[in-house]
Amino acid sequence: MQAKDLKPGMRVECQQGVAEVIDVDQEHNTAIIENMSDHRRVNINCDDLIDQPQLHTGCDSYY
Q: Which domain of life is it from (predicted)?
């Protein structure tokens, strides 16, 4: 994904699992995400994030 496509509060998928976007740095194409399973925050390159439209706020499972 690209930083311009991310917004705080979005749910995305990454190597660590499902995460919520906390903040986006468009200049460096990075985002701070919070892992939903252990609540650790990580600064990650946006290219490592996968958009999952089936993940909705308030729900960590697929429909």
A: Bacteria
CATH level 3 topology of 3-48: SH3 type barrels. (2.30.30)
Instruction: Express each pLDDT in 11-50 by its tens digit.
Output: 999 988 899 999 999 999 999 999 988 999 999 999 999 8
Q: In the chain, how long is the greatest CA-to-CA distance?
A: 34
Domain ranges of the chain: 3-48
Q: What is the pTM of this model?
A: 0.81
Tokens linked to 29:
């194409």
Distances (CA, A) of 3 to 12, 16, 33, 47, 58: 12, 19, 12, 9, 22
